[in-house]
User: Fold this.
Amino acid sequence: MRRFLVLLVVVSLGITFAGTAAAQGEEKVLVVGLSEDYKSLDPSRAYEPGGSLIHVSVYDTLVTFPSDSVGEILPNLAASWDISDDGLVYTFTLRDDVVFSNGDPLTAEDVVFSFNRMKNLKGNPSFLADTIASVEATDDLTFVMTLNQPDPAILAKLIFDAFSVLNADEVRANGGTDAPDAAETDTAEPWLMNHSAGTGPYIVESYEPTVQTVLVRNPNYWGEPAYFDRIIIRNLPETSTQKLALEAGDIDIAMDVIADQVPSFESNPDIEVFSTQSDTLIFLLCNQDPAIGGPVSNPLVQKAIRYAVNYEELRFLSGKGANNPAAMVPIGFGGALDPSEGLTRDLDMARSLLAEAGYPNGFEINFEYPDWNYIGTDFGIVAQKVQADLAEVGIKATLVPQEFQTSLDAYRSGRQGFSLWLWNPDYQDTLDYVEFLPGGVVGNRANWTDANADPEILALRDAVKVETDAATRNELFREIQLYEQEKGPFVPLFQPGVHFAFRSDLQGFNYNSQWRVDLTLLYR
Amino acid sequence: MSLHQFLARRLVLMIPLLIGISLVAFIISNAIPADPTAANLGERAAADPKIVAAFREKWGLDEPLHVQYLTYLSNLLKGDMGTSIRSRRPVSEELGRFLPATIELATFGILVSLVAGVIFGVISAVWRNRPIDFIVRILSLIGVSAPVFWLALIGLILLYLRWDLVPGPGRLDPKLRPPPGVTGLYTVDSLLAGDWRTLRNALEHLILPSLVLGAYSAGLITRITRSSMLEVLSMEYMTTARSKGLREWTVITRHGLRNALMPVVTIIGLSYGNLLSGAVLTETIFAWEGIGRYAYNAARTLDFPVLMGVSMLIAIIFVLMNLIVDILYYWLDPRLRQA
Assistant:
């Protein structure tokens, strides 16, 4: 026993000395707290928003957005581009000064490889390449992309992480392939988890899934070097833990702040908060199939619900930063109606619409929703508020909370009659919202199809899908949204706020809805 | 029956038990009215029948259930626990990464609760109905009833943010690299590597989570020790020991505590099993990536291979814990050795 005690004393002394002797480096380190949602660092499989933070620091795309908006398309790896008159052939001229992190120069072949690999991996983002018929390199710096139909959103799609340009030779050397059977034969993913093959300001040093991801500055970066030597992205799954770690100064940015936490940050001089509306759209779905939707399949009832909901109070309930879109195109997207053009609650109107539909005393309906919390929005609370609003016009909604995956399954297969859901954009272009029209991904879930929809909305939908002229597009989107206010199976409720908090000595913070924060532009 | 025979029998009995558990876990995870396809494919990919079909084929979800189960069992016999649908990494590799974190935390948690529980329990029994007894009883009531979530947050706010006594969440400071992996236990690995700085950091990071995690068991052990001690203290052999002129301390520890420990050992065995399998909340708040969070995430995304793997692992842990408890009975109670 005595020997053990002596040993214990010696060991603890050793620890103390070792601790004090350890030198602190002069390295400039940025620590980001994030609830890790990504499962892979292979950009060609990118899908989760958290991964964008890393991909945008490590890889480049042909074109890009400004750091604080998604309203404009800027050159990036491509210095310039031409679009053929029929809108089908895009010719990109690459910059001639770009090198990968291992020193290899960028060529058009790398772009061809990256695009084909992403498409052929058949992963979550592969659908973004659906309109691309073929890609080829006509010379070292010329990349030609041919579409199978005009796609007014294609440049916005190319900015998504999945279109990151990788070093073809390096990825091939580590098992990568862009062959049509890449989904089965490509084995580069494990290598890409701990390395990177990009042209961005940082390279991936290490990735311990669910613990942290470490980026170090790319010594061969072709542009202005970034300020921080090293970026550590720590997985802190619980928002209250992120808050504490930020207050203690252990992290520099908390990426998952919820509305309830904002007031307590505002009184703290060491911390700044950035709030805006997210591009998440929370909406009600009414099934068009009378066998599933019952009364809510009636267009008059759908319209009555749109007039019965108290939009302003829902927004208030959701907290700071939340906003009400006027229709199914969220605020922030080109062509979205101004929020002031949105519907306002009109109970008399709602009641008379219900009477006209044959329900003067209302009706009973099951109201389904996934019982979860998304970026601070508790679906149970939103559902209760909708239930109370509807009760005022006689609609007696019974809340049916469901386990998330069970609910998702029913929603995706179009089996929910009346439900509460959300939609996040797949890419930053308004075209993503034709999915709420007949035959679209969400339209189908409401059984709103070409067979049961008005010819008017079908014509608008088909026109907007191929229109490339900006002014005409906006006019078409306007008509679509005005239609959505009158008819259709959806009720737009609100866009929740999104909040970030960071140490106030951190400069250069900008938000855009594609990658949220460009970490490479931050400095102290 | 000798100890060897006893052990052999228990180990053989584990086989049907594990098969049974695998069957139950398999049936339950497949009976859920939800589809792993929806859980793991994105909005658009899930809307594309070709991608969905390829996904189902890749993960064997298109096979009839009994074929899926038999495939799983035969792979398991070859030591292959399958690949996680969510992360596309082998389940055995992931278990090997997450389990040590949990073992480390649970071991420190159970040490905290054992030391605190036994000491408090004895104090409380010896000074029964005195003020110290009431204080201990209130503390143990708090330990048993305070929600882990609340304890953890209060602990973090006071000890970490306000008083800066302990470091923040995680197993190590982000700027430190984990020690070279031998056991996966950072304390042991850094000791083996002779890396004192990392060892100290890892120990500091363990303080608060193990206090929080151990609070419930500490409360429980205090109460069991107390009642068990009270029973033993009233025994005639205690009077005998005292009348032999032994020192009071010897009477309480040698004659009292040792006899009072039997029920405590059972509780410790079960508590340790619980700590190893049920620390989801503690692990979430302290960003401690262990088996609890791993299982929770797998359940959320219907990651069947992981769910099966974790269920099997937890079953094995409980069986082993019970076995260890039985062995401890042997050691504590000489009558069992003669029987």
Observations:
- The first helix of chain A runs from residue 2 to 21.
- Chain A touches chain B through 49 residues (CB under 8 Å).
- The radius of gyration of chain A is 26 Å.
- The CA atoms of residues 222 and 409 of chain A lie 46 Å apart.
